[in-house]
From TrEMBL:
This is Flagellar biosynthesis protein FlgC. Its main location: other. It is found in: Bacterial flagellum basal body. Keywords: Bacterial flagellum, Cell projection, Cilium, Flagellum. It comes from Halalkalibacillus sediminis.
Length: 272
């Protein structure tokens, strides 16, 4: 009976985590460049159940022989292992704001590859992002909406000095202050990246490469446009309802086991 408690309880925890992941997707459905998370569920290790007992042998000495019979296998529950971002292209929406930039994916040599802007976080470390909602700060540097400096292909901050600048489809920033190429990175396996806050991704092992120098990588940088989130609100709402129903179902199972144990402890075992 306790095994049923654990199985239903683990399913409740997994669905609660899934609900949190779906809520995060829904809350970022309007965040430019946001990539929705997909939940990966796993089952706990499978166990083999056997019936073990002894049989009496009708002999003079009264021997007993061990005996076991395989009953079958059972899983002891489930859990949500991780969130995996889905790096599909979001819709590109015109904004007519010169500081807004969007990456339009072209040909990519790897199915799991993706292209990113390079920015500098508050600790001075290089991060990747698809959010091109940029602005120009008081010192004339091109920054993200969260205040992260946008980097060029050499890893230096881009200073335009004004919001009146042009960006070519190759990502060259042409301004009265300076001309430079905005940093565009390509990672062959975007699933290896670690998702951080503020729509940033950190590199774990394999470093990204310059997308312009990588063979077979095609892209366009569109000025005055933003890439929308790739979240489908209708699909997320459907998944939220399904997760909620699964949670309720397992909650009923836990309640049923609780009532059965109450009867076993307080009714069946009562001495009269």
């Amino acid at each position: 009976m306790l095994r049923g408690f654990y199985t239903a309880g683990s399913a409740m925890i997994a669905n609660q985590r899934y609900q949190d992941s779906l809520t995060n997707n829904m809350s970022n459905s309007l965040t430019p460049g946001y990539k929705q998370d997909r939940a990966a569920f796993r089952a706990f290790p499978e166990m083999l159940i056997k019936n073990m007992e002894t049989h009496d042998v009708p002999t003079k000495n009264g021997l007993t022989l061990p005996f076991n019979q395989t009953v079958g296998s059972i899983n002891s529950g489930m859990y949500m292992q991780e969130d995996i971002p889905l790096f599909t292209q979001g819709d590109v929406q015109p904004t007519d704001i010169p500081t807004d930039l969007a990456i339009q994916n072209g040909n990519l040599p790897d199915e799991t590859g993706s292209i990113f802007f390079t920015v500098q976080n508050n600790e001075g470390e290089t991060r990747l992002t698809r959010n091109g909602n940029f602005t120009v700060d008081a010192q004339g540097y091109l920054t993200s909406s969260e205040g992260h400096y946008v980097l060029n292909q050499d890893g230096d901050r881009i200073q335009t000095g004004t919001e009146n600048f042009e960006v070519t489809e190759n990502g060259e920033v042409i301004s009265p202050f300076d001309n430079t190429l905005i940093g565009i990175a390509y990672h062959p396996n975007a699933n290896d990246l670690t998702k951080e806050g503020s729509n940033l991704y950190a590199v774990n092992e394999e470093a990204p490469v310059n997308a312009r120098a990588e063979a077979g990588v095609g892209f366009q940088v569109l000025q005055g446009n933003l890439e929308r989130s790739n979240v489908d609100p209708q699909q997320v709402m459907t998944e939220m309802m399904r997760s909620y129903r699964n949670f309720e179902m397992n909650q009923q199972v836990v309640r049923m086991y609780d009532q059965s144990m109450d009867l076993a402890a307080n009714q069946v075992g009562r001495l009269r």
